[in-house]
């Protein structure tokens, strides 16, 4: 590299320029750049050497270098190019709700310790130990049961479960805070609070893993997870310090304690909602698939992840909060992976006709009963087959009540438009390799002969 390279400044000493007596001597200039991405580099030094001199010029100050190193403990390597655009707004709101959580935890822990008897002469060590053990034991058992019933559904509804997890944590803290008000029911209340927080631990940890994978653009999920841990540690320390100060100020004043706790809880719920709303997930679950397919059927184009994020329902289905403008929730009518032994004689006879005429080339069978579409997946069905079966079922559900021959019209639509639909999804940035759904444990194998049609 020749000495003619551009720079941010000239060397401070005259020795940086070769003298006239050595102008013909060989020389080299090397620029030092720092950064983990070719598009995010900053020059830190220039070295110039000839036969008799070596000149080093550093860019910036040592304080700039120190600040950069401190910042690297909290942001992923290669930021912002190594993470998705929704990483920063999510982390900001997530850190704010984390601070709120730890402030309130000081208030609830203070009330819990008071109810156990800390500071009272009549309290015994064995009594307090047993109460704490029973509280923790209930939480551990609740975590196992929650994983058993909902573990396979956390990936498919990461945004919803993230919101639910923090709401359950709020409920657990509330239980701790009210426990001193009913001494006779203290054990029951704190166990319910521990049970509520156990759901938070399982759902929050599982959804955090799913979100980390979403943020990672350069296979850097481990780095993002480590930096998120650093950010959470800072939020914890700030929250604990503010919580200790608030606990000291409100000590002995129940009105101030409850006002502070409820105000922070409302802010916590709002911050969590904003954090989840910032996310634009590119994976396909049942609801996002339904929104995308219905929009494509009307406009022959697909929505971007950001547009779908503004339309999808992030609260649980049983709540009354529904975003305005949401499409009809056809995905609630689809039952994937139906158990074959639940089929009736009439169901089997219907399948004997449709299996050979409409579903001969695919690894699934569809049935419609009173607006509900049941999907029977073949034992050798791949993730692509399962995605296709779900989209086909959505088409069938959409045509219910509109078409005379549901299976014929839905099959023709799939043959004409499905490939174009998937191609446009990939072009828009959607991950179409699999459908995030509940665990499909039931599959089937069917066979037919020309003489007599039967399904095994």
From TrEMBL:
Pfam families associated with the record: UVB_sens_C, UVB_sens_prot
Stretch list, region Disordered: 1-36
Biased composition (Low complexity): 10-27
Spans through the membrane: none
Subcellular compartments: Membrane
InterPro entries listed in its UniProt record: RUS_fam, UVB_sens_C, UVB_sens_RUS_dom
Keywords: Membrane, Transmembrane, Transmembrane helix
Keyword Oxidoreductase: no
Residue ranges occupied by any Protein root UVB sensitive/RUS domain in the UniProt entry: 63-299
Domain Root UVB sensitive protein C-terminal: 302-446
Entry coiled-coil feature ranges: none
CC terms in the record's Gene Ontology section: membrane
Family to which the UniProt record says this protein belongs: Belongs to the RUS1 family.
Protein name, per record: Vitamin B6 photo-protection and homoeostasis
Species lineage: Eukaryota, Viridiplantae, Streptophyta, Embryophyta, Tracheophyta
């Amino acid at each position: 590299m020749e000495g003619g390279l551009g720079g941010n400044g000239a060397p401070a000493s005259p020795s940086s320029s070769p003298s006239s007596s050595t102008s013909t001597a060989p020389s080299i200039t090397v620029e030092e750049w720092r950064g983990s991405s070719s598009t995010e580099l900053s020059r830190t030094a220039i070295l110039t050497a000839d036969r008799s001199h070596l000149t080093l010029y550093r860019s910036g100050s040592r304080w700039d270098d120190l600040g950069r190193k401190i910042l690297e403990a909290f942001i992923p390597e290669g930021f912002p190019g190594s993470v998705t655009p929704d990483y920063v707004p999510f982390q900001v709101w997530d850190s704010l709700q984390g601070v709120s959580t730890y402030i309130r935890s000081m208030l609830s822990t203070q009330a819990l310790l008071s109810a156990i008897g800390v500071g009272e002469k009549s309290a015994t060590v064995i009594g307090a130990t047993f109460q704490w053990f029973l509280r923790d034991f209930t939480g551990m058992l609740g975590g196992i049961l929650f994983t058993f019933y909902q573990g396979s559904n956390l990936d498919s509804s990461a945004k919803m479960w993230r919101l639910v997890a923090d709401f359950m944590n709020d409920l657990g803290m509330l239980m701790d805070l009210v426990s001193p008000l009913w001494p006779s029911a203290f054990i029951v209340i704190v166990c319910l609070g521990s049970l509520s927080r156990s759901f938070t631990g399982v759902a929050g940890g599982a959804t955090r893993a799913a979100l980390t994978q979403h943020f990672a653009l350069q296979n850097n999920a481990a780095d993002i997870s480590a930096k998120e841990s650093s950010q959470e540690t800072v939020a914890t320390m700030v929250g604990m310090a503010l919580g200790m100060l608030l606990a000291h100020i409100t000590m002995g004043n129940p009105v101030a304690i409850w006002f502070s706790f409820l105000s922070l809880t409302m802010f916590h719920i709002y911050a969590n909602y904003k954090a989840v709303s910032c996310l634009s997930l590119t994976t396909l679950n049942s609801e996002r698939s339904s929104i995308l397919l219905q929009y494509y059927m009307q406009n022959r184009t697909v929505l971007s992840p950001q547009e779908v994020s503004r339309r999808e329902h992030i609260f649980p289905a049983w709540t009354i909060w529904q975003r305005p403008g949401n499409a009809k929730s056809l995905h609630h009518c689809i039952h994937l992976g139906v158990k074959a032994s639940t089929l009736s004689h009439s169901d089997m006879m219907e399948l004997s006709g449709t299996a050979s005429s409409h579903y001969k080339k695919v690894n699934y069978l569809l049935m419609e009963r009173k607006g509900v579409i049941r999907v029977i997946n073949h034992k050798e069905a791949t993730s692509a087959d399962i995605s296709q079966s779900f989209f086909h079922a959505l088409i069938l559900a959409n045509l219910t009540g509109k078409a005379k021959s549901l299976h014929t019209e839905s099959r023709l639509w799939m043959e004409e438009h499905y490939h174009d639909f998937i191609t446009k999804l990939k072009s828009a940035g959607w991950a179409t390799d699999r459908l995030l759904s509940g665990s499909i444990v039931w599959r089937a194998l069917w066979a037919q002969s020309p003489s007599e049609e039967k399904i095994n």
